[in-house]
Design a protein that fits this description.
379 residues, elongated, 23% strand, 34% helix, homodimer, Aminopeptidase, Alpha-Beta Plaits, alpha/beta
């Protein structure tokens, strides 16, 4: 039976292939085909699923079911062409490192397939689509494949942790991510006659500015949260006041109480500010994944085993999100960061991972499986 | 020799034709062809010109040259389809009434052609393109055709004046119209990490709001002026803070001192606010036409003659502009409003003129010609 070191070159080659051919969420056609091809080459059983893209595969038999999850989508960011390894798809790149996630899960699948005889549990390999759009996890849940599962294991690369270090905590990892849309509807008209319009540009400006005080004045200052406006669009002619200005943004919180507070306050604020300037308003908040937080029993069970195999530290929480947060609402989960030590920012054009960190990720998957299997056998 | 009453039905038919087939500025191909066709049918001499669209024609001979001007372009506004007379071109309409202006100038040309033997001056008929874009008047000036001209006569329909009334004043009619572009350049990034971005959305919001106090705190309150922001655009992704927000707007003033003050203050304010939020900024101000104001000697000369022929009142000044303002910088001009009594707003989808007001406009042209000719003969 081979170890990770024996297949390392092949796994790194997979990662580089994924990196060169990134695909956006729910469009991961070639990525899906490539994963299936690798699994078939290793005689790993591919399961039918209800997903448009993504792969579900399994090894082993048993009453207990462990899901090992990775995400497979890329994002709409033009990679810095001066990088050593560059996306060949203009405008799309694996600037969040999901190429690394896929390669690690393929490695885990290959190594566990070779140990299938020893397995007393069933392992599902979930190559989840469309994480960046906050769609994939919910689609997986809705497809029903998790109904038989006992635990789901996931992770994300973390450029701010040292190479090969595992970040694991009982506390929150990543923020709840909600998407905000604000429409300010006024009455447009001639730019020289502001008094007979209801000007949505000024109203939108006041909304953006007054909203700053929600974090600074309404939220308990010991809590951390973000409210960002990210797009603002209104008007098509330099000499006409527009009828509508549309804002998008995001609310990011670590606690449900902060999340509810911010949602309530922004709704009230927009209504109040719009009324001040005789405009109508509409606020839509699309609830994204909850803050990523581990199941306490899973941490208690798996942390000691992981600490024997690798260096484990308490990571800083981050205001990024992962739609992994949806899984923890339906089954026990464990989430970890795998340090790459690269220091670059997620979603930046020069984002990097480090192939040497793949081993930690594969080890994390295998250690979780081994520990859970032992635990269930002896309990 | 016919009077306006004799050709009235034909002139109204021309107006309705123009209304059905509106064309945008510098695209008035069919409009130009139609005007030339009518002029040819009446044996009126069409002069070569350097303009892409628009027509220059002449009748009479003499040392002195009077230019009678109208504008011929339509605007990008979808006319209310329930109107009695509707544009047949989707998205384009004569919502500023230039159809009426053209019909009146054709009437003046036809009637003056029939009186050509009596003329001791030369009349140029200027069907000017692209007024709405603030381009046409400058193109006419640049083409050199006004070098031999002694005076230029123009007018605009005014829905807020009673039908058939002429608005004429020695004071300012219409505002100087300057076009404003503001770029706020920050540093974009992940919406959950505002502290490592330089957020141009908040900066743009403060620019829009702080700019309100330029009018209220910097301008002498006895003066009237408008500073409107009309478009605001930034960002393309709900979860990324953008790098740039771009604002457009307009500055409208009646005096050169107010115009200079507002230009200076907005430049300073944008630079100051951008610096507050660590952003870069760029302000561009495209100087449009000056405030429309008559030549005092022309008013003194022509007002008494016009008052004998029609009801003349002092009009309210308006914060719309007319690129007629460019002409007054190169030769003596007279500008008037012709009341249509329609009460609808310029540039609104249900804008109206009244065909009965055409007679006042034609009378205005003819009275100016007659009075100037008499004046020059006796001086």
């Amino acid at each position: 039976m081979r170890t990770y070191q024996d297949i390392k070159e092949q796994i790194i080659a997979y990662r580089h292939h994924f990196h060169r051919y990134p695909e956006l969420g729910n469009e991961e056609i070639e990525t899906t085909a490539f994963i299936e091809q690798v699994l078939k080459e290793h005689a790993i059983r591919i399961l039918p699923n209800q997903l448009k893209t993504g792969v579900l595969a399994s090894v082993g038999k048993g009453e207990k079911v462990i899901v090992l999850r990775c995400d497979i989508d890329a994002i709409a960011i033009d990679e810095d062409p001066n990088m050593e390894l560059v996306s060949l798809v203009p405008g799309v790149s694996h600037a969040c490192g999901h190429d690394m996630h896929m390669a690690a899960l393929l490695a885990a699948a290959i190594l566990l397939k070779e140990r299938e005889e020893e397995l007393t549990v069933r392992i599902l390999f979930l190559f989840q689509p469309s994480e960046e759009n906050n769609e994939g996890a919910q689609e997986v849940i809705d497809s029903g494949v998790l109904k038989q599962a006992d635990v789901l294991i996931g992770w994300h690369n973390e450029p701010d942790l040292p190479l090969g270090v595992l970040g694991l905590t009982n506390d929150v990892f990543m923020a709840a991510v909600d998407q905000l849309t604000v429409e300010i509807n006024g009455e447009g008209g001639h730019a020289g006659y502001p008094h007979i319009t209801k000007d949505p540009t000024i109203t939108a400006a006041y909304v953006m500015i007054e909203a700053q005080s929600i974090i600074s004045r309404k939220l308990n200052p010991i809590e951390a949260a973000v409210l960002s406006f990210t797009t603002v669009h209104g008007g098509s002619s330099w000499n006409s006041i527009p009828t509508q200005v549309r804002l998008e943004g995001t609310i990011r919180t670590f606690s449900e109480s902060a999340r509810e507070l911010l949602k309530r306050e922004i709704r009230q604020l927009v209504m109040r500010v719009a009324a001040n300037y005789d405009c109508e308003s509409e606020v839509e908040i699309f609830s994204g994944p909850a803050a990523v937080k581990n199941d306490s029993e899973m941490v208690e069970l798996l942390m000691p085993a992981l600490e024997k195999k690798m260096r484990v530290i308490e990571p800083d929480k981050v205001f990024a999100g992962d739609d992994f947060g949806f899984y923890q609402e339906v089954l026990p989960t464990l989430y970890a960061f795998v340090g790459t030590g690269c220091g670059t920012d997620w979603h930046s054009p020069n984002f990097l991972v480090n192939d040497e960190a793949l081993e930690t990720a594969v080890n994390y998957y295998l250690t979780c499986v081994e520990t859970l299997q032992e635990y269930w056998q002896s309990n």
